[in-house]
Amino acid sequence: MDKLNKLDRKIKIAVIGAGRTGRGFIARLLHNQAHIIFFDKNKELIENLITRGGFYVNYYDSRAPDKITGYEAYSTDDPACGPVLAECDCVFVSVGGENTADAGEWLGKFIRPGISVIACENAVCPAELLGGRFSGRACSGAVFCTTTETTEVLDIISENYPVLYTDENIPDFIACLDGIEPVGDFAALMRRKIYTYNAASAIIAYIGAQKGYEIYSDAANDPEIDALLDGFYEEINKAICAEYCIDYKTQREFALLSKIKFQNPKITDSVSRNAASPLRKLSPSERIIGPARLIIKHGGDVNALVKTAAAAIYYAGIRDKTDINITKILTGVCGLNENEKLFESIKKEVCKS
């Protein structure tokens, strides 16, 4: 049976969030297999999607551009949202981790019982970010693809990345679409991604900001940052292999792909975009503290992540280095205990900077 004909008609997929990932990756993967309907709170973006009727996804390599057309687009305050969502077969949510709960609350007002929701965010279990009302119907998706906006309205530049990884709870009629790949241990995959890709990205962004870089690939190719990355990769690879029983060669290649990606000057990105939301990224389960604890658990060196944590605290605008204030940040934001080695190491680094 053709993958597109699991239903008697072309399936309708709602994409909540028409930003870089929503329109440049999710819609690009699925637009030839489904009818895409965008929803976004940015009225100007929605108006542009409607009036222009299409946009291009260009690629950093030699792949020919994709033109995305034939979609619908609605502002989230449009009264038509409810009836339109009621006709959708599933919903993809890609609004940024900090906005996912709000998107879930909005979606909960309209969504009909039984429809599946796939949350595509950088978290170990993105589905949980949607809130309790979606328990049992929400699935998780992992976005590995980098997408950036161009100077042309709506157009995107993207990696030629062919897959959206999801957990195994995804409905069969979505799982069978080209570009969708369910994985058995999604939580382990996301831990590896956050602790490898996202942690390395944080090193580049926050140390890069500290050194005055604006272009992301320039920061990634800085000799000092390059050395920090190599040291970090060595430690996190060993820790991940020990913790998750991953083959070392597999993890090393996984990590190397991230470094190649970050240092590619053709991938136009900014330090500021990657450094956004520093306090969220300093939380216990995120890309700095989480991998640092794992490395320490397996006897490794966390120098690169200690420096990154201090740089992120500075980037967040925290200038009060008094003992009380730094302790408050490290315990309240980072979730560290005062008797942890990592607590003392970051505190010393903050006071040095």
Q: Which percent range fits the helix content?
A: 40-55%
What is the overall shape?
A: globular
Largest sheet: 8 strands, mixed
The total of helices stands at 15
Tell me what you see in this structure.
With 353 residues, the chain is α/β, with parallel strands linked by helices. The chain has 2 domains: 3-184, Rossmann fold (3-Layer(aba) Sandwich); 187-352, N-(1-d-carboxylethyl)-l-norvaline Dehydrogenase, domain 2. It is 46% helix and 14% strand. It contains 15 helices and 12 strands. The protein has helices at residues 20-30, 43-52, 81-86, 100-108, 172-175, 186-210, 216-220, 223-244, 248-262, 271-275, 278-281, 289-297, 303-315, 323-333, 341-352, and strands spanning 12-16, 35-40, 54-59, 66-69, 72-75, 90-93, 116-120, 138-142, 147-149, 156-158, 164-166, 180-182. It has an 8-stranded mixed sheet with strand order 5-2-1-6-7-8-11-12, covered by helices on one side. Strands 4-3-10-9 form a 4-stranded mixed sheet. Helix 4 (100-108) links the parallel strand 6 and strand 7. The relative contact order is 0.09.
